[in-house]
Specification:
The protein is of the alpha/beta class. The protein folds into 2 domains: 34-104, Roll (Ubiquitin-like (UB roll)), CATH 3.10.20; 107-258, Cell division protein FtsQ/DivIB (Rossmann fold, 3-Layer(aba) Sandwich), CATH 3.40.50. The chain has 5 helices and 12 strands. It has helices spanning 2-29, 51-58, 72-80, 150-165, 222-239, and strands spanning 37-42, 85-93, 97-104, 107-112, 118-122, 127-131, 141-143, 173-180, 184-193, 206-215, 243-250, 253-258. The strands form 2 sheets. It has a 9-stranded mixed beta sheet, covered by helices on one side.
Length: 262
């Protein structure tokens, strides 16, 4: 009796295995699981690469291969070959659809490329693509620094990130950050003049611009210096004071040189 039970168990197991193999074999060859649709989603709108470009790069053999035979790793590698793309998520959806989500690099600044034009820089310091002041009007420009100057690029990115996180970001904009062999890092900062509550209604605000010297090492005591600069620029803005130069590299003090007539 025991032998008969074991025989039944083995027979049933074999039937299950054969059924599973047959199901997989059928799925691999069934038209129901042939890739017919590819969906493309992007992390930004509008994306720098069109859906048609992504589909061409992915090279998915729609209508010719089963979802179960599709090489998702190969598709990811083809897409990641683009310098614009940070990462991708390729996944299968029910029935006959493949979904591709493309996460693009987030530009933080512009820099002069090897070809002489402007290129983008992401938060990691990666230089990629091409741009101009029309397509990226709000990005600061890094000058006096080459693509090979990784350390200086990282310092500028640290400055921009810390500036945006500080109280200095409210109403005060860094438009350029330049490296000068004698003075170190210099940032061109814009601020609204005559913006106090007392004169906002009577006087049309004007835009002031001034160069801020940060010295050779931006990261040194940066948070303290930015807090001091925020106070300085808030005062200049409220009082409508035009400034020619600001030194934020003079130890614990912020030195301001006002324009003539201020």
């Amino acid at each position: 009796m025991a032998k008969f039970k074991n025989f039944l168990i083995l027979s049933f197991s074999a039937i299950v295995v054969l059924g599973t193999v047959a199901s997989v074999f059928y799925a691999l060859r069934s038209d129901l699981y042939t890739v017919r649709t590819v969906e493309v989603e992007s992390s930004v709108e509008p994306p720098p690469l069109s859906s048609q470009t992504i589909l061409k790069m992915a090279a998915v053999p729609t209508g010719r291969v089963s979802l179960f035979r599709l090489d998702l790793v190969a598709i990811e590698k083809r897409l990641l070959a683009s310098e614009w793309i940070h990462h991708v998520n390729v996944r299968l959806k029910p029935s006959d659809t493949l979904s591709i989500f493309v996460a693009y690099r987030e530009p933080r600044a512009l820099i002069q490329s090897k070809s002489g034009g402007l290129a983008l820089i992401d938060g990691s310091g990666r230089v990629y693509g091409s741009a101009n002041l029309v397509s990226a009007p709000d990005l600061p420009i890094i000058g006096g620094v080459t693509e090979q100057s990784a350390d200086r690029i990282q310092q500028v990115l640290k400055l921009l990130s810390s500036w945006e996180a500080s109280s200095a970001a409210a109403g005060f904009t860094i438009s350029t950050v330049d490296w000068d062999d004698e003075r170190g890092f210099r940032a061109l900062v814009s601020y609204v003049m005559g913006h106090s509550k007392s004169n906002a209604a009577q006087v049309k605000p004007q835009l002031g611009r001034t160069m801020v010297d940060f010295g050779n090492d931006i990261s040194s005591n940066l948070d303290v210096r930015l807090a001091q600069l925020a106070n300085v620029f808030h005062y200049l803005s409220e009082q409508g004071v035009a400034v020619r130069q600001v030194w934020a590299d003079a130890g614990k003090k912020i030195v301001v040189k006002t324009a003539r007539g201020s």
